[in-house]
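thought: fold this chain, then report.
action: predict
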Amino acid sequence: EELEGNEVFEKISRVYVLAFDNFGKVPLIYNSKRKIWGFPGGHTESEETIKQTAYREFAEEINHELLNISQRFLVKNKIDDNNVEHQIICFGQIGNKKTDINDIEENVSEISFVPIKDVIAKVGNPQLWNQVIKELKKEFEKPKSNNYFKSDTKR
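observation:
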């Protein structure tokens, strides 16, 4: 479901980051354990906000700064009859600066920058990501004067 603002959630299992560069390319990571392409992200650390998790995970897995992040979607992923995993999907823009953090997990064996139009064909579980990618594409295609990703400062 799409988020309206900066809602606060108590039990967020994972935060995923969908970001694009100035050319409309989205970084994907290949999880060698699960054998699928996906988005940078991971679990929140104790006392960490959703945005802090997004910045940290992106820096660790992609080794680039993340600009102008916004919480956009809440995904409820049913694990089994008794457990539902709550995931936040954030949008952002890839900054030009590399980070000093490089803590790529052993499961991440490859990083690929893929044009937005090709992301759905590459990621695992495309039915889940289809609407989210459509929204990300709209953000990239907004006129630059109205695009909140135009700024080069972190929010």
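thought: worth noting. Residues 126-141 form the longest helix (16 residues).
final: tokens above.
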